[in-house]
């Protein structure tokens, strides 16, 4: 139909819409911190700007080692807004397993919560600690890389490695978008819902074959 623009599917668009339609509604409750959808959308774009200023380019891997804080939530949007691929690390893994995932995924930068800084060790790539994170994001310029292929890589989620080395599951933008729609329907969420997320955001229960190193889209 003429006049209707095609748009690649990406879960980032859910936050963009929420910021426009429900700008002043609460989006994040993290301890004493309260952010609206408009604020979360702004911070996600500024995180993308921070990553771009640190040399992150489309296709690069950005790892995050954090419990369920606003840092990890913002990374789920800010990393793809930079055109990069999110690698959310399991905080329960041993330092050797974390080091393996950083190498296997080809991560270019790590965002880390100060609580888990020791488990990260001294990786051979840049690290942004949560102690500096908020000030750096606030000072960054908003940035966005448009998704031009909805089947491009969005994230790599790693298993716990209980039967061997951790294995990576690759998600693309389209798959994550459709899964989000399915979960909203399954949970019967609507505009009056208040949803409490309790599972670790790094968690995955997928089983897969082991991927070659480094992982490529």
UniProtKB/TrEMBL annotation:
<dbReference type="GO" id="GO:0006631">
    <property type="term" value="P:fatty acid metabolic process"/>
</dbReference>
<protein>
    <submittedName>
        <fullName>AMP-binding enzyme</fullName>
    </submittedName>
</protein>
<comment type="similarity">
    <text>Belongs to the ATP-dependent AMP-binding enzyme family.</text>
</comment>
<dbReference type="InterPro" id="IPR000873">
    <property type="entry name" value="AMP-dep_synth/lig_dom"/>
</dbReference>
<keyword id="KW-0436">Ligase</keyword>
<keyword id="KW-0443">Lipid metabolism</keyword>
<dbReference type="InterPro" id="IPR020845">
    <property type="entry name" value="AMP-binding_CS"/>
</dbReference>
<dbReference type="GO" id="GO:0016874">
    <property type="term" value="F:ligase activity"/>
</dbReference>
<feature type="domain" description="AMP-dependent synthetase/ligase">
    <location>
        <begin position="15"/>
        <end position="208"/>
    </location>
</feature>
<dbReference type="Pfam" id="PF00501">
    <property type="entry name" value="AMP-binding"/>
</dbReference>
<dbReference type="InterPro" id="IPR042099">
    <property type="entry name" value="ANL_N_sf"/>
</dbReference>
<keyword id="KW-0276">Fatty acid metabolism</keyword>
